[in-house]
Amino acid sequence: MTSFPFANLALIGDEYHSGETDRASCRVPAGSDIMGYLYLVQGVRPANEQLLDTLRRLKKPVAVLVEGGAVVPPRFTGHTRYVHIFKARSSENAGRAVARCLLDLGHIRIAYISPYHRARWSRFRHEGLDEIYRAAGHEDAVPAFTIDKNAILDYHERAREHIDIAAFKQLYTDWKKRMPRPFQFVLDPAVEEMTGARAAMGEVHFQTMRLFDRALADTSITAWVTANDGVAVPALDYLARKRMRVPRDISIVGFDFCGLRSMGSYQQTI
After folding, report:
1. Contact by Cβ (8 Å): 16, 38
2. DSSP 70
3. Per-residue pLDDT tens for 77-126?
4. Domain 91-266 coded CATH 3.40.50.720
């Protein structure tokens, strides 16, 4: 939850998306200084129905911004007195913008590569690409190389099945006891992120290699559009191992400006 004093709004994000209905986190600030709420709903998980009920009972304006085709409970799908639903298709618009750019550069046949295609935002990105190419007279010019059964959170769950994170954390806890106390404040967040997100990235990397193999086998494709930068960076490494030159042989496009793009060796090729 983030409050903006200058706007007297409370912004509610992903931490409220859980399907658990008894979470204490559904208690939201309700001070007289807060004039309304903005609830951002993304991904494949539905909006938190208990939270929506809580917000409605506060009798203050609530704007629910639904991005990527996320699901809102049926009784909230229409506007009510206090709760208003707004749908965004930013992922589809991003796909359209990339398609126009690639067409201007002369790319007639491109690949869309996503290991997260269960997520609506991934499907929307592909639809945006395909729409522009078809409008330009290029039918079936954006083949999809995707894993349709997974979204990002599925890889987190799968990584935990394959990696004994609890044992790793215990090793870290034992080691930390022997370290000077100031180091703990620096290392704790890094280890937590490493054991979760990084383990999931390893699972994504393993699954995505097959998609790269399939895309590279189609020699008519001159550009790869990846679901996000977390896929674009491994694609660059993969093509380097195959002695393919980027962008001379294959152009790479990523989305989201995630932290991986800040790595200097990649900045000029994505």
Report:
1. no
2. -
3. 666 778 888 777 678 889 999 999 999 999 999 999 999 998 888 998 99
4. no
